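Researcher: Please translate sequence to structure tokens.
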Amino acid sequence: MTSDFMSSTNALNVLHNTVKNYEKDVLQFYMANERATSKFTGRFDFKQFAKKMFDPIETEVLGPLYVGMLGECHTWMHSHQKSRVGANGFPHSFVSVPELLLNMILAYQLPQQRFVPNDNPKKDEPGPSDRSRQEDGGEGGSRKKRRNSQAAKRGKNVTINPRVTLSDELSVKLLEEMLKIPLAAESKLWKTAKYVLCPSNSPHQMEVFGEIIAQNTEAGLISFNALNYFMHDQVITQHFKNPATILHALYLGPLNAQTVEVFAANRSAEFRRSCRDVLRVAVRASKDPMSFQHSAPSNIDKQHPDRVKYRDFIETVKQLVKDLNGEYQGSSGIHVGWACAAIKKFGQKRYVDKTWRDENYYDLLWTVLAQRPHLKKFVVDVLEKNYGDYEAAKFWRRMQPYQMNPTVIFNQNVITDDPLQPTEEFLNFSPQVQKIFMVSTEKEIRDLHQLLEYKVSREEVVYVGVDAEWSAYVSPSKATILQMAFYDLVYILDLESHQISPESYHLFLSYLFDTKEVVKIGFQFGEDLHQLRAGFRNCATLYRPNNVLCVGKLIMDLVEEVSKLNHAEEFKRDHLPFLIDDPTVMAIGKEDDTKSDPNESISNESVGDLGEPKPMKEESVKQQLMNKGLSYLCEKFLGKPLDKTEQCSVWDRRPLRNLQLRYAAMDAYCMLMLYDKCSEVFSKMGFEVKEFLDKQSPIRISLPLLSEEKL
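Model: Translation complete:
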């Protein structure tokens, strides 16, 4: 009976019924949207439509039916003389038949959340700790935490497995069919498809997938969207052995520089040289139509649905080469949508939450209006209608945005307290810190360079706390300051000063990040390095820095070692008392022997809102400590949190305000404080901190492809 059901005729019949039902349902959906008064009508729900079509089908035949239906798509399209289906009069409803099936299968195979109410729900009464916080004048935690706490009392969400468990063999067959499906260049479906086909992300399965994807590429049986996604995947891309894959992708769609850089990263010098040769072929092919036809890869069929036209090819190659050379051509102004969202979001922080000061919001409004003057009316309306601040609205109504510089901000109403002045609520500098220096001239950067060289000559190891800041209100972003903290002085290097030559920047950064005797201590410093590379893309040492260490990883090692002690509880009570009270941290280093209910998990993993896999449980437990952030670590290990008010401030303004100077300096200096605390606790356990520092893997990133040799 099963084999009879799985005949091509039955797969074709199910496909035909699916298309007809889609045309009917999507028409009803869009007509209902037209009658709706709200403009936020949402998108067609493929998950509910897939449930309607797939739920009546027996589970054991559904998986093979997926493959059969995908295989019958071309037969159906040929017999009905149409490749796209949807509701007449609603262009946005039209999709190709294979894309319709892809959306349905992925939606149906994703795990689902089901709310299970508690048997004895408790009333939302505040606990003792909540009452104490409220009595002290607090709000009993953030609104999000309170909301989550109340929801937990009512019940919990349980993750439900999909009906069909895809075997390795079935996943491979689906992958081969899905690779052919043409999708819009901006579609994100392959991110979901990769998880659905291989939720465990097992190395063996990814190895098999990589070989199949490479073979289908060589055979010309892959869409641009799939090829572009897997070229950008750091695991799969290693299976593409032919540098000509770049040219293959260019003849199918708008290949971008980031994908090419990932494709060529961590390859041999010969492979990277061949990649540049392929790019030269692409440049020559863009010169005239004859060269374009002559250079086309022979394995791409002329009828391939994604094959590009000559004019599109010219624009793609031109933009690609510019981006690979670091020649950003777009607007550096803040995106209008993000600007409006930021004005509202941080207005809430200023007027409602009271976590932002006037000077923070003033800076934001200034830099937004200087970049997008037409938003002046929007700013005034928000101030008047949302927050009732008529004085501020009157002030900004008088301003002339076209005459304002986004980084030179004039504001006399700023706090001028000494940045080193102690506070009662937040972490303070050690008394030995003498001064915070802003380095913004040629002489100052030379003096700093000489100081660093002098320290290296006098000391066996020089410990430096490092951090970088960048503005969220420009695009693309890049680091604007680099903080360096010694035990007695803190330096803030202005990375956008017109008084410092590019050669001086390059010389100093190269020395700082190349010198092994200088131990750079940061916290998750990878993103900071990325932002530094955005500003100094040809500084080779930023891609392969020496002795850049993460204090967060050091703390994870420390907590894990503490949990292994025979007298762990006594040691925690004497030296790290917060470990006793924090269940998240206590769980680190312990094995999890609990078994999962198969109906409440997918392959022993939890799944995010978009169907993306989260890390395995053991790893996620360790990561939770890091994910709590630097301020949390400071509060637990050093006694007080960091003041994060300036975290989202305008970091490219000059001069920096005193509160910005304090925030920036403390972000770097606390690295030394945390390191000293870890060193102290390690020594009490009989360990040398150096042996844990040496365990950290060095940061190694490939140089930009065209920095080694121009085209």
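Researcher: Any highlights?
Model: The mean pLDDT is 88.
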